[in-house]
Amino acid sequence: MAKAKRDALQGTLDLLILKTLSSGAMHGYGIAVHIMQVSGDALRVEEGSLYPALHRIEQAGLLSSEWRLTETGRRAKFYKLAAAGRKQLEVEEQEWVRLTRGVARVLRYA
Amino acid sequence: MRRFLHALRSSIYKTRLEREMEEEIAFHLEMRRRDGHTPAEARARFGNSVLVTEQMRETHTLRFLESVEQDIRYAFRAFRRSPVFTAVAVVSLALGIGANSAIFTVTNAVLLKMLPVERPDALRLLTWTSLPKTAMSSINGSYERKPGGRVGSDSFSYPVYLALRKNPFFEDLFAFKARTGVTTLIGGHSERTRVDLVSGNLYGALGVRPVMGRAIVPQDDVAGTSSHVVVLGYNYWKRRFGRDVGALNTTISLNNEPFTVIGVNPPNFDGFRAGDDVDLFIPLVSIKIVDPVLPVDDANVWWVNVMGRLKPGVSDGQSLAAMDVMLRHAAQATLSPRQNADLPKLEYKPGGRMLNRDYFQTAIYLFSGLVGLVLLIACANLASLLLARATARTREIAVRLALGAGRWRVVRQILTESLVLAMMGGLAGTAIGYLGKDVVPNLMGTDWDRPGVEFPFDFRVLAFTLILSSLSAVLFGLIPALRATRPDVGPALKSGGRGSTQSRSQMRVGKLLVVSQIALSILLLVAAGLFSRTLANLRGVSLGFDPARILLISLSPPDALYHGEKREQMFARVLERLRAIRGVQSAAMSSDALVSGDADTTNFDPTGRPKGEHEPAYVQAVTADYFRTMGIQLLAGRSIEARDSSSAPAVAVVNQALAKGFFGKENPIGRTFDSDKRMEIVGICADAKFAGMREAAPPTFYRAASQTDTFSDRQAIFALKTVGDPRLTIQTAREAIALEDRTLVPFAFRSQEQQIDQNLAPEATFATMAGGFSGVALLLACIGIYGIMAYNVARRTGEMGIRMALGAQKSAVLWLVLRETLVVAAMGVATGLLASLVAARATSSLLYDLKPYDPVTLAGAAALMLLFAAASGFVPARRAASIEPSTALREE
Fold it and tell me: Do the interacting molecules here have an ipTM over 0.90?
C-alpha cells in the first residue's frame, strides 16, 4: 500500500472522515453535516471535495461501502470503517496529537 | 474480490460507476434542499459537481492501474531475488509454449487456413470412392485406400467434369490440375516451375482478382487457341521479375512454347495446397504443353480436380444424392466397360480448405498432443515450484492477511507474478516458435529442389500464443495462490510454515503434481520409444541393394524439345558423359529411383497361361551396369548387358519375389512372358525394395532400357557409383550435362542415402520430435522431483535431526528420503504406463513391426524415468543424511 505524499489539508480531511465514521456507518451528506456541527462550523470544507476523498480512502482499503435505504426511504451510499481504517485512524490520531502538541509548544514558548 | 471487480468495472464499464457517482451527488444536493436550502445555495456549498465527479473517477482508475503496476514491479523484484527459480520457470514455459506455437503455425497454415476467396465455406471439392475393383482403372492424381476397404480419389475425367457441370445445384463447377517440373525459360535462364492449370471459369467463380493485369477468362480456355496466356504467382513475380510492372505482356516460354503474361495473382492466393506456392497459372487447355504424355482426351483417364460453390440454400444432402446419380451416369456413359467393376460414389469435401491437409493431419494431431503434454508438464512443474515458494512465504502472506489485506489482493499479487512469468515465457516461446515453425513441414517436405517451405507466423499464431500463455499462468498460478491464502492463517502464523497441517496438505498437492508430471512424461517417453524403434526397424530392414556412395540425378526435358528417339539418344549421351567423370566407378540409367515412392506396374503374363490370371508386376527399365551400380545381387543367369540393344531379342531379369510368386518352384530362366511385348527371362536377382521401405520387395522385373519406349517421353534417373562422397560429384555432373545442352535442367541431385532418409522423413520426424519433447519432459519432471523432495527435506529437518540424535544411521536417513522419492516416481510411472496403454493404440498405424504395447519400450520408459527420479531425489536425500542433529534441533 503505497503512501503517496499528502498535503496537510488532505491528511486532515482523511482523519476527520475516519474519525467521523468510527462511531458507525454514514452517508456522505451525514459525514459533511457531522463534521460541521461538531466543529461548531469552524471547519467548513467545500462539500464536493468530500466525495473524491471518500472514494480514494475506500480504494485504499480503509473504508467499505454499500447502498442502503435511509430512514426516509431514500437510496444512499453508506460508508463504514474497515479494519485497516481503524488502525490507520489510531495512527493518524496519535500523529495529529503529536503534531498539534508540537505546534502548541512552539506557540507558547517562542 | 469485491474491490477488484469494482476497480475492473471502473476501467471497463464506466457507466454503472458513473451513475452511482451521480446518484451520490444528487442525494447530497437533495438532502441539502430538505434541510432548507435553495438549489442554488446547495450547489454553491457543494462546489463544481463536474469537477468532483472527475476527481472521483480518477481515484478509481488510478488506484487500479497503480496497484497493477505495483504488483508487476513487486513481481519483478521477487524474480530478481530468486534468479534460478525465475530462469527455470521461464525456460520451461518457453519450451512448452514455443513448441505449441511452432506446431500451431502448421495447424494454422494447413488445417485452419481457408482459400482467400468469397464465401469459402460454400465451396465443395468433388471426390469419389468405390470398391477396390474399380471402374476407374487409370487415375492420375491422388489415390488412396480408405478404411473399410474402399478406394477413393479426387480426380475426374474431362468428359465427366463437363457432364457434371450441367447441374442445378452449383453456381458453377470449375476444374484444375497441379503440375510440377515444368521447364520455364525467361531471358535465357531455364528452371523447373510449379504450375496450376485452371479452367477458364475458375477465377470468376472463386472471385480471385489479380493485383495487376487480368485474370484467366473462359475465352482463354478453348481448344485450338494459338496464343497461350499465363498469370504469374505473386512470389514468382517477386522472385523472377523483382515486382517489375513491365512483366505484363512479356512472353515467357513453358516447355518451349511461348506464353504471354496477362496478370499477377494476389499474394494470398498461391494454389490449393498449403506450402505449395504455385509459380504459374495457365488455362487447362494448355495441359498438352505442360504434360504431353497425359492422355487427357481419353475418357478412361481420370486426372482433373473439380470444385464448385453451392448455390445459397442448397443443402449438401439433397444435391449430393442427385449429383451422385449424375456421376454414375456420366461414368457409365464414358468409361470402357469392364466386368464387375464398381462405379464411383460421389462425396463432398470442404473446398475452401487446403487440399493436402490429409498428408499433414496425422502429424499435426500427434504433435499437437505431444506439445500439449509438454506444456502440461511445464505447468505442473511451475505449479509445484510456486507452491513451494508460496509455502516459503506463508509467514509473509499470513502477516499481510492478518493486517487486513484482502484475500483477493494477495491472490492477485501471486497471480500477477504467474502472469508476468507466463508472459516472459510466452515471449521467449514466441521466439522459439518462430524459429521452429518450419521444422515440421521441412522435415516432412517432399521436394528436393525447394526445401524452403515457409508458413506464415500471423496474428492468429500470436493470439494463440498469448492465450496459451495466459491460460497456463492461471493453470499453474491459481492453485498455489488459493492454497497460500486460505482463510485459516492462524496455524501458519504460529508455526512459521513448518510441520503444520497446512504444509503437510501442501506437500500432498505437491506430490500429486509430481506424480502427474511423471505420468505425462512417461506418455512422451513411450511415444519417443515407439517412434525411435519404428525408425530403427525401418532402417534395419534389408534393402537388397547397397545405397552407399550413389548419386541420383533426375532429368526430364520438355517433350517439345526432346521426344522419341531424339530423347532416348540424348539420355544415352548424357549417361556416357556422366560415366566419364573422374571418380565415377559405374553409372546406369533407370525409369524410377529406388525408395522414391515412384514405381510402375504392368501386366505380366507367362507364355502359355491365360491372360490376366496374375496381378500386375512391378517393372524397372535399366541400362547395363544397373545391377553393379546399385549393388543388387544376381542369383542366377545373367544381368542386362550392353548387347541387349533394340534389335536384339527382348530380355528381362526377374527378382526372387516374382520368380516365386509367378513360377513357384519352377526355374523361370528361359521362360518367356508377355507384357507390351514378349520377353525372355535371362536371370534372377535378389529382392530389392522398390517404392518404399515399409512394403516388402514386390514382384519386379527389370528390362533393357533400349528395348522399351519408356524413355521416349518420360524422365530418366541416372545413378552414379562414386569413389568418395557422392555429393562432391554434383557440380561436375551438372557441368557434364550442361555440355550436352545448356537448356537442360537436371534436378533432384541427391545421394541414394538421402533418398532413403527422405522416404523415412515422416518416421524420422516423429522420432525426432517425440524424442526432443520427451527429453524436455524428463528434464522438467526431474526439476519437479528435486523441488518437492528438497522442500520436503527442508520441512522435516527437525524430524531428521531427532532420528539422527536417536542413533539413526546416515544411510537409513538417505534411504528414507530416497524411498519416498521412488514411491512418488513409481506411482507416476504406473499411472503413466496405464495411460500409455490406452493412448498408444492411436499410434499403431504409424508403427512398423511393433506393437503399441511394445514391452521393450514400456520397460525402457519406466526404467529411464525411475533412474532419473532416483538421481534427482538423491541430492536432497544426501542433504538430509548430512544434517547435524544439534543444528537441526536448535533450529526447531
Answer: no
Which DSSP string corresponds to B774-789? HHHHHHHHHHHHHHHH
DSSP secondary structure string for all residues of B481-497: HHHHT-S--HHHHHHTT
Q: For B24, which of A28, A49, A82 is closest by C-beta distance?
A: A28
Hey, what amino acid is at B858? L
- Among the listed ranges A2-16, B57-71, B842-856, which one has the minimum average pLDDT value? A2-16
For chain B, the average pLDDT equals: 86
Cell numbers linked to B212:
495487376
Q: How far apart are CA B355 and CA B178, in angstroms?
A: 11
Residue B727 per-residue DSSP state: G
Q: In what order do the strands lie in the sheet with A63-69?
A: A26-27, A75-81, A63-69
Question: What is the pTM (predicted TM-score) of this model?
Answer: 0.72
Distance CA B380, CA B221 (A): 61
Pick from A58-62, B382-386, B678-682 the range whose average pLDDT is largest.
Answer: B678-682
Tens digits of per-residue pLDDT, B93-112?
888 888 899 889 888 888 88
CB pairs under 8 A between A and B: 76
Q: Are strands B700-704 and B617-622 parallel, antiparallel or unpaired?
A: parallel
Chain B within 8 Å of A45 (Cβ-Cβ)? no
- Using a 10 angstrom Cβ sphere, with 0-12 exposed, 13-18 middle and 19 or more buried, the burial of residue B50 is exposed
**Chain A: closest CA distance from residue B67 (Å):** 8
B649 three-state secondary structure:
coil
pLDDT at B585 over 80: yes
- Distance of alpha carbon B296 from alpha carbon B473, whole angstroms: 58
Closest Cα in chain B, distance from residue A102 (Å): 30
Q: Which residues contact B386 (CB under 8 A, 6 or more apart)?
A: B414, B417, B418, B476, B477, B480, B481
Q: What angle do CA A59, B470, B435 make, to 5 degrees?
A: 140
How far is B133 from B119, CA to CA, in rounded Å? 37
Cα separation, A63 vs A81, in Å, equals: 5
**Cβ(A13)–Cβ(A32) below 8 Å:** no
DSSP B433-472: HHHHTTHHHHHH---SS---------HHHHHHHHHHHHHH
Tens-digit pLDDT profile for residues B738-790: 999 988 888 888 999 989 988 888 888 889 888 988 998 898 888 888 888 88
Q: What is the CATH classification number for the domain harbouring A58?
A: 1.10.10.10
A86 is a domain residue: yes
Q: Do A32 and B28 touch (CB under 8 A)?
A: yes
CA angle at B809 for the pair B803 and B815, rounded to the nearest 5°: 90
Chain A residues inside the 8 Å CB shell of B50: none
- What is the domain extent for residue A42? 8-109
A65 in a structural domain: yes
Rounded CA-CA distance B175/B18 in Å is 61
C-alpha distances (whole Å) from B292 to each of B105, B120, B143, B333 are: 38, 33, 22, 26
Residue B18 has what pLDDT?
75
CB atoms within 10 A of CB A82: 20
Write the DSSP symbol of residue B154.
S
Cα distance from B763 to chain A (closest Cα, Å)? 58
Question: Domain total for chain A?
Answer: 1
Query: Which three-class secondary structure state does DSSP give residue B35?
Result: coil
User: DSSP 3-state helix, strand, coil percentages of chain B (rounded to 5)?
Assistant: 55, 15, 30
- Residue B866 in contact with residue B826, Cβ under 8 Å? yes
Q: What is the DSSP string of B494-536?
A: HHTTSSSHHHHHHHHHHHHHHHHHHHHHHHHHHHHHHHHHHHH
Burial track B497-534 (b if 16+ CB lie within 10 A, e otherwise)? bbebebbeebbebbbbbbbbbbbbbbbbbbbbbbbbbb
